[in-house]
Hints:
This protein is mainly α. It folds into two domains: 70 residues; 49 residues. Helix content is 59%, strand content 0%. The chain contains five helices and no strands. α1 packs across α2. The longest helix is centred in the last third of the chain and has 26 residues. It is flat and about 75 Å long.
Amino acid sequence: MGFGFVFFLETILKIFGQGCVQGQGTYFQSSWNVIDFTIVISFIIEFINHFYGQNMSVRGLRALQILRPIKALKTVLSMRQQIVALFSSMKGVANVVCIIFFVLMLFAIIGLLWFSGNTHYTCRVTKEPVNGAWEKF
Length: 137
């Protein structure tokens, strides 16, 4: 909750410094600022819910905080190159994941056909517990 107040203060200062909506270079003209604003709004809702005992959860919106370091891609060239290389390798990785998925599905279907019903009641002699306890072999 401590960083939520820092984000709230940053948002308020940026809105007063850059302007809100009208004009060139205002706060809501940048999509990163819109993401920051939704994070701050979710913090405020969660803060109010904490004190008034409401059961409205906005933790899903707070997950957008992981997008904040991506703003550093504009300035750090080496990190930008690594991210571009990561995204360019995703097509090949996706093909491998698809092949592995189909192979695992094939083995799962074969396993269901071979072992379907064969392991039912194998750990006990009786169907129901005897004297409150399960009998073992």
